[in-house]
Amino acid sequence: MQPTVRFSRKDPEQFFQTIRERVNRYFEDNNIRKTGNLKMYTKTGAMLAIYFIPFIIILSQVLPSWVGLFLYLIMGLGLSGIGLSVMHDANHGAYSRFPIINKIMGSTVNIIGGSSFTWKVQHNFLHHTYTNIYELDEDIDDKPFLRLSPHGKFKKHHRFQHIYAPFLYSLATISWVTVKDFKQLVMYHRDGLTKRCGFKPIQETIRLIINKILYWAYTIVLPIMLGVPVWLVILGFILMHMVAGLLITMIFQLAHVVEGPEHFAPEETGTMENTWAIHQLKTTANFSRNSRLISWFVGGLNFQIEHHLFPHICHVHYKKISEIVKKTAEECNLNYFEYPTFSKAVASHMRVLKKFGNNPQFA
């Protein structure tokens, strides 16, 4: 059973109240909804097309086999785009004002091999509530070869983690579509998180098994049955997921495991020093706020501060409200962590990995 913590209610600067009022006023004054718009719907079509059109071409076998590998790499970009830009907003209820549409678009994670159920528990509940709190935020849990928190258990091989981490990141989605979702399913049932988050254990178990069977059927069995060379299907599948795993994992790591954001351990009293909103600000960073291309592809996840404070607002609005958030943070004398470019954020992440891997005194 995981430890639990409570956040302080003391906010003398009224940071969250002020920022919430200002953001609400922005939407009211401009007469726009907080959910998705035409930009979001257009992007959804683009991401689905980037994933499925190359796959259809592979199935048609109209091009040489070696071109198929290139098409699988493109599918990896589409897979990443669906995960970052489509299902993410939908599973937060931010894609549409209609719950049924959020449910449908949220289920696109099942199409690419994941699970909307485990995602909602791990990401929406644990990560967004207990960001960067060791033993509560699964994103920074001890991994077999990675130490992502200064409070994690130190092992000698961690000194090289800044070198081999990108390769392990590339295996992330392969883990999701094979064993990780099942491990989380068992753990969430055991710890009572399934019911606590409003899900039914038996129903979610059956749904997960069926979704996995359907995924493997259309990605592996179908192409082979249609005559696509087995070597191309297997190798292409691996390459597709390595591209997606590296992109998706790196994007999420740049939000919390970089220089600036703080890490915490559950305090013995069970009460955190800061309010939930200030905790989000202290543990999160943005990057490339001025890059339209990156903002488009990563679904606004380069605006992680805004996303953590307002997860029910669609990411297409983050650019505008980021100025409100930054200004309010400065007025309250709170840090607003951000990196101007993607490369600078990556470099910072690597320095943090090296630091965590070479400082056993943090253990």
Break the fold down into its secondary structure elements and pairings.
Layout: H1 15-29, H2 38-60, H3 65-91, H4 99-106, H5 108-111, H6 116-129, H7 161-170, H8 172-191, H9 193-196, H10 201-225, H11 230-256, H12 276-282, E1 285-287, H13 292-297, H14 304-309, H15 318-331, E2 337-339, H16 342-357
Parallel strand pairs: 1-2
What does this structure look like?
The chain has 363 residues and is mostly helical. The chain has helices at residues 15-29, 38-60, 65-91, 99-106, 108-111, 116-129, 161-170, 172-191, 193-196, 201-225, 230-256, 276-282, 292-297, 304-309, 318-331, 342-357, and strands spanning 285-287, 337-339. A two-stranded parallel sheet has the order 1-2. The radius of gyration is 21 Å and the shape is globular. The chain starts with 14 loop residues before the first helix and ends in a 6-residue tail after the last helix. The mean pLDDT is 94.
Mean pLDDT equals: 94
Question: Which value, in Å, is the CA radius of gyration?
Answer: 21 Å
CA(first)-CA(last) distance: 21 Å
Integer tally of domains: 1
Shape category: globular
Strand content: under 5%
Q: Taking strands numbered 1, 2, ... along the chain, how are they ordered across the largest sheet? A: 1-2
- Fraction of residues in helices? 55-70%
Largest sheet: 2 strands, parallel
Count of alpha/pi helices: 16
| Broad structural category | mainly alpha
Q: Are there runs of 5+ residues with pLDDT below 50, and where?
A: none
Give a count of the beta strands, DSSP E runs of length 2 or more.
2
The helix-strand sequence is HHHHHHHHHHHHEHHHEH
